[in-house]
Amino acid sequence: MKAVELKDVVKKFGNFKALDGINLLIEKGESVALLGPNGAGKTTIVKLISGLLKPTKGEVKVFGEIPWKNYEVRRMMGIVSHNTFLYDDLTAYENLQFYCKLYDTDESKIDELLEFFGLKGRKHDLVRNFSRGMKQRLSIARAILHDPPLLILDEPTTGLDIEGRRELMEYVAKVGRKKTVIFTTHNVKEAEEICDKVAIICNGKLIHFGEIESDLENVYLRVVGYEGT
């Protein structure tokens, strides 16, 4: 069984075709970077995989199930995106406690994660008083709290300081070989650091998929047509 399968996927928003015939297979345990210009379709792919959208045409499966139809397969994902999915009127600890109950997870992991992401000293503070970077750290802790087999990281280092970025990359490097990771980023160096493969999206099409090479930046510039400009 593949971890993720997209077959002939088309996604339209009105007359705009965000994705145009995407075919992508991700094996269990692979770490795949999604690269592409702004508006290329990366976040649309992530939303389809996570079950937040359904395709206009084609087929999307995660661990053999259709994610927008199957709640149980969505529980097998940990998602970090621009939306932190946190509650401002709860404390850091209460936010993670809520997700522990949602995912039927042991609360003993909460303090360990708060300490790992440098938030243990603020565990009883309301999230509304956190900086953007602190909220992002907490959202990463939320995403990995239930030890999901699939991590979807949609530009997760946005808003993180140097220390927060290092902690995230350390965690992904540590557990990534045991999980399937989908990582969208504009930072080629980040992709090289934690991913095995790269999928390059441009104008809603998959224009390159394969092992990450040492000259990934040049590969990217060439396939999207920026080389020599």
Describe the structure.
The chain has 229 residues and is α/β, with parallel strands linked by helices. It has 2 domains: 1-76 and 154-229, P-loop containing nucleotide triphosphate hydrolases (Rossmann fold, 3-Layer(aba) Sandwich); 81-148. 33% of the residues lie in helices and 26% in strands. The chain is built from 8 helices and 9 strands. The chain has helices spanning 42-50, 71-74, 92-103, 109-116, 132-144, 162-175, 188-194, 216-223, and strands at 4-13, 16-26, 31-35, 57-62, 77-80, 150-154, 180-184, 197-202, 205-211. Strands 5-6-7-3-8-9 form a 6-stranded mixed β-sheet, sandwiched between helices. Strands 2-1-4 form a 3-stranded antiparallel β-sheet, with helices on one face. Helix 6 links the parallel strand 6 and strand 7. The mean pLDDT is 91.
In the CATH classification, which architecture of the largest domain applies?
3-Layer(aba) Sandwich
Q: CATH class of the largest domain, please?
A: Alpha Beta
Q: How many helices in DSSP terms?
A: 8
What is the strand content?
A: 25-35%
N-to-C series of helices and strands = EEEHEHEHHHEHEHEEH
Q: Which sheet architecture does the biggest sheet show? A: 6 strands, mixed
Relevant CATH superfamily of the largest domain: P-loop containing nucleotide triphosphate hydrolases
Low-confidence stretches: none
The name of the CATH topology of the largest domain is Rossmann fold
Q: Nearest-angstrom radius of gyration?
A: 18 Å
- Strand order within the widest beta sheet: 5-6-7-3-8-9
Compute the number of strand runs.
9
Estimate the helix proportion, in percent.
25-40%
| Average pLDDT figure | 91
Domain module count: 2
Class computed from helices, strands and strand pairing: alpha/beta
Shape: globular
- Span between termini: 42 Å
